[in-house]
Amino acid sequence: MSQQISFKEMLKVFGLGAVALVLGVEWFDWLMRRLRVRGPLKEVLFFPSTQTCLEHLFTPNRSFPCKCPLPHGKETSFSRLLRHLLSAHASLDLCVFSFSHMELCRMILLLHERGITVRVVTDRDYMTITGSQIGNLRRAGICVRHEMSTAVHMHHKFAIVDGKKLITGSLNWTVTAVQSNKENIMVTEEPELVRPYRLEFQQLWEANDPAKHTHRVTNGW
Amino acid sequence: MSQQISFKEMLKVFGLGAVALVLGVEWFDWLMRRLRVRGPLKEVLFFPSTQTCLEHLFTPNRSFPCKCPLPHGKETSFSRLLRHLLSAHASLDLCVFSFSHMELCRMILLLHERGITVRVVTDRDYMTITGSQIGNLRRAGICVRHEMSTAVHMHHKFAIVDGKKLITGSLNWTVTAVQSNKENIMVTEEPELVRPYRLEFQQLWEANDPAKHTHRVTNGW
């Protein structure tokens, strides 16, 4: 009797074990596929980007349709870039060598008006070239710091949205870069990639704090 | 008796279930950590890079120690970049705006000598500036194509090693970029990121095939 029960028990345990194993494998496979599909954002955008109307991004609630002659309703690399910037809820840290693109400037001003904390680090020489939008950012009250050294170019072109979305590549924020050149940017939320750029930004932000360089200014440096 | 057995069975099943659950959670946690640790390569390098002796990378089998005055045995962002290039077994596709760094040129020539298939796409204007290494690559038999349009800059700065490792960022292949500027590069084997750059390279390679533009040359374009 006792042996019969043990055998029954064994059968049940093996049966349950087999079912659990099959279900487990199925569940694990499903989970891995979900993880792969919904992994951190990774998007690559190439330029030049075709010119389209972007008014709907700046004024989404306007009641009348835009009547400009540009194509409407088409998604491009540039509109994707603007959308990623628009996704900011709390902060935008921008590190860019050359910034003369008026629509990108308009976007940054819009984010600033919405209460997003915007910080900009840029190059000392390029911030004063004709068409640079750095002055417009500063006049709007956005905090901009520039590379203090005269011997070095701050050649980065990256942005970090809300501390977790990285936008980086070869693209300077100029009309030539967006509309003419062969350029690339990558947008990712992969923590291993975002973290080093966040640290680099913080380091540059602190190293180029004007308060730390006041003595140089008074000495005529 | 039958009720007593059912209760025993239930206890055993619950007990085994609990053990299986605990072991399963432990195993899943271990697996996820392993997957995270051994995920595709992701590395970020920042510049400027300190100058060190790199002779061991070019001539690893030399019997005598290098006696140059530069620091030895120190890993830097630049030595990491060279190591990633050196990891090529079959191919290197390089898309770079400005290429005047002699050590990077030496590395490309070394790979070419080793039988690695090297293809280079570069900018039309910048390939002829003083110090450009493009001529040296061509003289060594490496196939270089340049952006054909006069109105456009080929401003990319990326390389693909063996079709699966992407090196991309703000860094041009110049001494100023490596030793002075604030620059970044990202090295990744994440297929979702590598694939678009591979396609972009192929597209640029084909679009700038001189055979397709011969009529322009004969017409004096």
TrEMBL record, chains A, B:
Source superkingdom? Eukaryota
From the record, what ranges are coiled-coil? none
- Membrane-crossing ranges are 13-32
Q: Name one GO molecular function term.
A: RNA endonuclease activity producing 5'-phosphomonoesters, hydrolytic mechanism
The UniProt entry, under InterPro entries, shows:
PLD-like_dom, PLD_domain, PLipase_D/transphosphatidylase
* Cellular component GO terms held in the UniProt record: mitochondrion
User: Which stretches make up the PLD phosphodiesterase domain?
Assistant: 150-177
Q: Which UniProt keywords apply?
A: Hydrolase, Lipid degradation, Lipid metabolism, Meiosis, Membrane, Transmembrane, Transmembrane helix
Q: Please verify whether the record's keywords include Magnesium.
A: no
Pfam families in UniProt? PLDc_2
Instruction: Look up the record and give one Gene Ontology term from the biological process aspect.
Output: lipid catabolic process
The UniProt catalytic activity note for this protein reads: a cardiolipin + H2O = a 1,2-diacyl-sn-glycero-3-phospho-(1'-sn-glycerol) + a 1,2-diacyl-sn-glycero-3-phosphate + H(+)
Family note: Belongs to the phospholipase D family. MitoPLD/Zucchini subfamily.
This protein's name: Mitochondrial cardiolipin hydrolase
